[in-house]
Please model this.
Amino acid sequence: MKNSAIVTLLLSLITFTACNKKTHPEKDTPVATNKPVYKAPVKTPTPKSIVVNDAAAKTSANGRRYYDLEGKRYWRNNKDGKYYLYYKGMFDKPEFQ
Model:
C-alpha cells in the first residue's frame, strides 16, 4: 500500500512536470521582414479653371476648343479665354457656344 501510494505520487509529479509550459519549446514566431510600406499617391485637387495656350488646345467637330488634363476635359470660355472644367448645363450658356 505504501509502495503504490509512492508510485502514484511519483507518476503524478512526473506527469505534471512534463506538461509544464516551461519544458515545451517556444513556438517559432515569424521574423518580421522589412517590407516597403505602401504609400498612396498624393492626389492633387482638380482646378475649376485653367489658362491654356490655344495652340495646345484641340478643336471639337462643332468648333469648340477643349483641353484634356489628367483625364478631365476643359472647355474654352469665349468671353475670358479661360478653360473651365466640364459641368452639366455648360453648353446652355452663350459664352461656351
Remarks:
- The longest strand covers residues 65-69.
- The mean pLDDT is 82.
- The chain is about 20% helix and 20% strand.
- The CA atoms of residues 15 and 60 lie 88 Å apart.
